[in-house]
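Encode chain A's predicted structure.
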Amino acid sequence: MAVDRIVWKILLDFFVLLCGWIWESYTTIGVFTFGAACQQLTSNMTKFVIGRLRPHFYDFAVLVCAWYVGLTRVQEHYHHWSDVAVGYLIGAVYGVLVFVYVLKPKKYGVPSVRRSWAEREAAPQSALPRPVLAR
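Encoded structure for chain A:
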């Protein structure tokens, strides 16, 4: 009789623990899904109101993120300001070198932003600045 009570107690504790874990997982996934839905709704509404993103939006976003990371590293005393400035300089130099020597924009030409959809479809695929085509 005592063994049965111990077994049932262990099973009950396990069941309570499992139910708690399932509930925590459900709420965490629910919060994540709600946040993802809000983000997607905001993004879709912005695209509908403004139109498509401008050509240099992602370049600007990357620069702002790099600037923010550098400032927070200095503010939290992880790095000295001169180290961050030299890191920016090194990153800019490598970015320019990769753009000029790997993408080779002069060879293929910079794609025009003002071309129509039909002109883009009619253009040959080799006109795109891809590193694979440069080899």
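The CA atoms of residues 39 and 105 lie 35 Å apart.
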